[in-house]
Structure prediction request, 172 residues.
Amino acid sequence: MKSQTQNKDGQILIAYFSKTGNTRKVAEYISRVTGGDLFEIKTVKSYPQEYRPTTEVARKENNENARPELAVNLNTIASYKIIFLGYPNWWGTMPMAFFTFLESHDLTGKTIIPFCTNEGSGMGHSIADIQRLCPGVAVKEGLALRGGNSGGSLNEVSAWLLRIGITSSTGT
Prediction:
């Protein structure tokens, strides 16, 4: 599926973090629609497999304003003009690994388009956090999807992409 906003000259990046696979499904769909490059944000130290212990680690990182070390970092972000950021909402914002990622790059002049999966908390204060961490960027309307339904919400993702001006030439 090609898009009217194709990833000409590598201009679109979809950077995402996904613990359960829900956010990954949405990121992969956006990549198919836009032709954007995918980059999965992973930490050196893995999160626990079980839900409750993961939430406790995430809460501790959030409370300590931690910056987890990333397993891989993007060498250059200069050629990208549009950056989709996909993440689960953990404790009202992005996982702290996203703070590490955003602070590792100069995003001045770029357009950031956030999307998140959640279990009822929406975008939380992640938009304000992105704006604080990335002065000089334009932040477009974000999309919050219920986590367990993210794979089944591709029509909602398509409508959102159309609403923000990222439209598919096939109409999806």
Strands lie at 12-16, 37-40, 82-88, 111-118, 138-139, 143-146. Residues 22-34 form the longest helix (13 residues).
